[in-house]
Amino acid sequence: MIEQVVAEVKNGRPERPGGRVMSLLVQPTPPPLWRGLVAAAALIGVETVVVLLLKHFAPTNAFGTVYLLGVLVVGAAWGFGLAAINALASAVAFDYCRSWPDSGLSHPQNWVVVGVFFIVALLSNSLAWLARASAIEAERRRHEADLAARQQTALRRVATLVARGVPPSEVFSAVVAELASCLEVQNAALFRYEPDGTALLLAAADEPGLQKMPVGERFSLDGDNVAAMVRRSGRAARMDSHDHAAGTAAARIRALGLCSAVGAPIVVDNRVWGVAVAGSSRPDAFPPGAEQRVSDFADLIGIAIANVQARAELTASRARIVAAADDTRRLIERDLHDGAQQRLVSLGLRLRLAEDSVAPEQMALREQISDVVTDLVAVSDELREMSRGIHPAILSKGGLGPALRALARRSATPVNLDVAVPHRLPDYVEVAGYYVVAEALTNVTKHAQASEVHLAVKTEGDHLYLSIRDDGVGGADAGKGSGLIGLVDRVEAVGGRIDITSHRGDGTSLEVLIPLERDLLAAGQSSELVPGQT
Amino acid sequence: MATGHNGVVESQVEPTRVVIVDDNPEFLDSARRLLEHQGVRVAGLASTNADGLRCVQELRPDVTLVDVNLGEESGFDLAEALQESDDGGPVPVILISTHAEPDLAEMIETSPAIGFLAKSALSAGAITAAISRLGHNHLK
User: Fold this and answer.
1) Rounded mean pLDDT, B83-87
2) Are A478 and A415 members of one domain?
3) Sign of the Cα pseudo-torsion (A279, A282, A285, A291, in order)
4) Number of other CB atoms surrounding residue A468 within 10 Å
5) CA–CA separation, A105 vs A84, rounded Å?
6) Is the full-model pTM beyond 0.80?
7) Does B9 touch chain A (CB under 8 A)?
8) Would the CA dihedral through B66, B69, B70, B76 be positive or negative?
9) A21 and A147 share one domain
10) Cα distance from A397 to chain B (closest Cα, Å)?
11) What ipTM was reported for this prediction?
């Protein structure tokens, strides 16, 4: 209890007035007996001096209460036994003062006085003892309520992080810090169970001065340790000491200066995903309810991980849907090109052969055939434009650079082009980049009334960066069917980001980042959540 | 476009010899018949890069018509390969496609091909025009 109070003081928490004295008086285990004896003797000495001084002003009989004070103090701190001795000694001293300079105890009436004092002192002491017990209880309850409130606050902080969808690493760090603080222990750690039977340390909070736990290290789960117990049972577990525990993990825990530990499972999708562990260098650090408190935090981590996994799955499934649609469009374009388009072209050539074969005198027939050839070429061109809308063949053949330049050439609004991209990029990057520019240029022509578009495309680190700025009327809104919402979906589906700035009268600017590797989709989101990856 | 059904033939002593590389048999057939009719000698037909390369090296035509799309292969690659085969000097390549020229403009410019013809505009006249442009450029 006193350590907790001291801890509170260290933590800079405000102390109740009188709390210090109270805590001294209500310690559950009394200070050493010799200190009690010394204290009792000193108190009696001081009291005797006070009574002898007071004797000059009033009859000594009135001052028995002065001695009572010492009995109560000693009784409160050292218990009934010492209080009784103190009461007896005080009674004798009181009697001595009262009859001084005569020898008091020779008169039987003095014995009565001593006896009455002794009994009253003991009764008072018993009452004081009761008061002390309820004070201890009140103090304990207050501390528990305080801890519960702190834990609720800590849980709320973590829950807010989880709800905000911050990266799991941030949630992990916050949880270990809060866990150690709430349980008032020196260490807290999060482990993920690995397929190889080890536990990977994901995050740790260590009190300054304690050896730092090595994040990223794999702990073997053989022998006796909390992580192994939790994995086996799927339930919270505790070890009040690792002194005689077997196994390398236990040895490692001892080497880190830790003694006791409580762990609770982190459950994700009904599977024990990992374990949250609070550790202390003291053997008796964890009160009976500690398992539940660690579990409260572990549950939040489980939710955070499930959230992130759900989000990652959603992202991946969006990307798959878009990729499947792109593949289909590519196939349709190729089928059109290789099928209908080629047949129309061949038909045209055969008709031209027929046209050439018509005798010169049959001018009318010749002209008719020529008209059909012209129409056929027009149909073929129309089909070609449709095909390009479905999927630009140039993109598959020449890559993003030539495809964007072709787009710029066809744009109704003049395009100022600044493209510096590698010859080839991953398919999905090229398609997304092309789509963004095509859609943006269409939007500009349709809505912006711009005189020029500036298009800049480059690779920036592990992203493709696209910037499309026009000098038009601005005021575009992704929510109003402007085509912008399609762009947002398209970019986000491949894990990219799009910023749209469109103030009325100040043109529209799109800035887009598309990750160059699919893995980046998951980076910082799920890689640390998948067992076997770090 | 051909100038007339006789014009091209009469203007040349030796007919122009071409090899056509395209993966569409129907197109190969139509193109051959039209060009032959217009007085061009279609020396060989091929449908893959490898066949095309072999065909050209064996037959040494005046010009090779190469489709930009050759199934999974690219006609641009064949144009490069033909340029690099120094077996008797490079044979000029004219790229053909159903795609629009502006779409492919950049790739055509960077390829060693001497020109581009939309498949629908294929004719003896267009081929000779491309070759004579090449000759004209060489004289410069």
Assistant:
1) 73
2) yes
3) positive
4) 23
5) 19
6) no
7) no
8) positive
9) yes
10) 8
11) 0.86
